[in-house]
Amino acid sequence: SQKIEQNSEALNIQEGKTATLTCNYTNYSPAYLQWYRQDPGRGPVFLLLIRENEKEKRKERLKVTFDTTLKQSLFHITASQPADSATYLCAPLPGYSSASKIIFGSGTRLSIRP
Amino acid sequence: NAGVTQTPKFQVLKTGQSMTLQCAQDMNHNSMYWYRQDPGMGLRLIYYSASEGTTDKGEVPNGYNVSRLNKREFSLRLESAAPSQTSVYFCASSVIVRSGSRDEQFFGPGTRLTVL
């Protein structure tokens, strides 16, 4: 069955450093991959989408890579700030329109210490 | 523009009771979704509605029913609540689910449900 794995352990990073979060998937060939941020007690908020034919996507301090050979996406936050502390979810998606195939990872909790 | 709203924010039920979770969006989105989120499990899709008048099962539909009342509203009903349904429930919407496009989902604030 399809499986999405994100770092199960919380990630603690010193402010100013680059945080790197991993999303691995198995038994799946997504055409897209989305990343969301979730703060405690709130719903997820969309950050970035990357397509299978895009190796890298950037948005301000965020960078996402998508390696279909390794079946992995990496999510980077450069010059990290305490305000970046949150849980980050990845969601690999098929190319066809079927919401039943939307599977989210369980998320990685990121903590940026001053 | 409120986005996606959910009511209630918190609810405690006894086993066997029924209730309906309400969700509304004011972004004129076609598609709406219901998820549950449990610790360590991530978001799991319960039901979705690709467009007004249609609903389909997701990954974990057992014990739930849904109604797409109109384009704005999508409700989730628990007919006979069980302790295993204790969770945080999120409603989401997106512009459209169509081939070749993967629009972002907009999530509501969630409903925290406890079944005793």
Care to give the gist of this entry?
With 114 residues, chain A is mostly beta strands. Chain A is 0% helix and 53% strand. In chain A, the strands form two sheets. A five-stranded antiparallel sheet of chain A has the order 1-3-8-7-6, with no helix packed on it. A five-stranded mixed sheet of chain A has the order 2-10-9-4-5, with no helix packed on it.
Structure notes:
The complex is a heterodimer of chains A (114) and B (116). Chain A has 114 residues and is an all-beta fold. In chain A, the strands form two sheets. A five-stranded antiparallel β-sheet of chain A has the order 1-3-8-7-6, with no helix packed on it. Chain B is built from no helices and 13 strands. The N and C termini of chain B lie far apart (36 Å). In chain B, strands 2, 4, 5, 6, 9, 12 and 13 form a seven-stranded mixed β-sheet that branches. A four-stranded antiparallel β-sheet of chain B has the order 1-3-8-7, with no helix packed on it. Classes of the chains: A mainly beta (114), B mainly beta (116). The interface between A and B is medium-sized, with 26 and 31 residues.
